[in-house]
């Protein structure tokens, strides 16, 4: 019942953040439980569309990779 985001950086560092999930008309909004200084959040639309969003209106949809 919990959501987590694992982030891996090119220098080998990584983080694991618990996320708060909120159902919206656009999809499942995922925000860092401990907060985010930049207002960034993720929007999961369906089972295979992930959009990186910012409170200033910026959006980037991740490309789906083939196996």
Count the DSSP helices: 0
Largest sheet: 6 strands, antiparallel
The counted number of beta strands is: 6
* CA distance, first residue to last residue: 27 Å
Q: What general outline do the C-alpha atoms trace? A: globular
Multimeric state = single chain
Order of strands, widest sheet: 1-2-3-4-5-6
Provide the gyration radius in Å.
13 Å
Helix percent reads under 10%
Q: Which structural category fits the helices and strands?
A: mainly beta
**Low-pLDDT windows of residues:** none
% residues in beta strands: over 45%
Summed over residues and divided by their number, the pLDDT gives a mean of 91
What is the N-to-C order of secondary-structure elements (H for helix, E for strand)? EEEEEE
Could you explain how this protein is built, in words?
This protein is mainly beta and 67 residues long. It is built from no helices and 6 strands. It has strands spanning 3-8, 14-23, 28-32, 40-45, 49-54, 59-61. The protein has a 6-stranded antiparallel sheet, with no helix packed on it. A hairpin with a 4-residue loop joins β5 (49-54) and β6. The radius of gyration is 13 Å and the shape is globular. The mean pLDDT is 91.
Q: Can you give keywords for this protein?
A:
single chain; about 70 residues; mainly beta; six-stranded antiparallel sheet; about 0% helix; globular
